[in-house]
Structure formats: C-alpha cells, structure tokens
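Pipeline run #58 for the internal structure catalog. This entry was flagged by the ingest filter as a single-chain record with no existing model, so it goes straight to prediction. Upstream metadata was stripped on purpose; only the residue string is passed forward. Reviewer on rotation: M.T. Logging verbosity set to normal.
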Amino acid sequence: TWQFCACFIETDFVTADHGWWMFAVICFLMCLGFCKVFEDATGCPCCVLEDYMGKLTTWKPALIKVAVQILGAILAARWAFFVWTLGYSESHAMKAREELCETCINCSDLEGMAAEGLATFTAQFAAWKLKESDLSDYVNSALCVAIIVTGASWTGMMFNPALAVSMTYGCKGESIIDHVVVYWIGPLIATALSYYLHFGNVPVLQAEKVKTT
C-alpha cells in the first residue's frame, strides 16, 4: 500500500508539468508494473472485502489488513511530503510550501459516491471477467487509466479508499463525512455488487444462513 500510494502521489507532478497524455502513459506503466510485481497482494480495502465475501478470510484478519493499508497510506503521504522538502524540482518545492492541500471533490457527495462507485464497479467487474485472459493485466491497466482521466475532474477518481486516505484526507474543503461517503461507501458498495453479479452468490452470507438454520 505504501509503495502504491507513494508512486501515485507523484503523478500529480507529471500531470501538472507534462499534461494528461504523459500522465496516461506513466499511469499505465505503473498499473502494469503493480500487476506484474504485486500479483495477488493488494493495497486496496475493496479487495479485502472481496476476500471476505468469498470466505478467503474472516472479519478479524480483514479488519487488520484494512488497518495496515490505512497506515501504509498515511505513511506514504508523510514520505511524499519529505521528498517534496528535498526540492528535487520547483514543483516539489512549491508543494512543500503549501499550507494545506485542496480537496479533489468537485461535486456533491452523492454525485461523488456514484462516480467513485461506478469507477470501482467497472474496474472490479472487468478484472473478474478478464482474470483468465493473458492480456488481463494490460487491459485492466488501460481501463484504469481511462477511468482516472475521465473522472479526475469530479473526485480525483481514486476508486481505492486507501489511496484516497493518502491523497485527499484532511484536505481543505473535505470533511470526514465527505471523505467517507465519496471514497469509502461508494467503492465498497460497488465492490459488493460487482462480486455478487459476477459469482451469483456471496459465500460468507450463505455460511451465516446455514448457521442460523
């Protein structure tokens, strides 16, 4: 999670200094690299929810994983600020002098929740459908880039609660409620929906039903 978030934080400078086309290229290569290197590891609470729904983990380990992901996200933000203070470029130096970041949310909470939810659903559902394909990593990476570029002006298009913690939590103009509704509730509901629509059932709920009968 730390590596994932720290790298994505730096893409803001790519966009500001070189434009969206260069961002798209760098983001695609980063996503592809993460797919190849991380394999089944994850830096996203949505993936932990999928594992829990599929009975690949229980609720206690799941909560611990999410807590560690949040910690990694917070540490990534602290690391990024340290890098900015080194002044490797004028953009980094200017960023380090900012008193407070600005929120990425440029719409209502419900609109933001819907946008982040739709982005998450699209990415997660496609990942399930393409899982056995040899081109899955490439297609999923390209899809993620397309989603980010399309919706960045609305919410920053994180579709990853941990990444949102690292990049936007505590920023000016964003309350705790804004953050939770847009970057947590939307993606988590979308994740649950994509899982159910793909598999047609939720093993953890079936197990609970058996216990009560």
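catalog note: The chain has ten helices and no strands.
catalog note: The CA atoms of residues 11 and 115 lie 21 Å apart.
status: ready for reviewer M.T.
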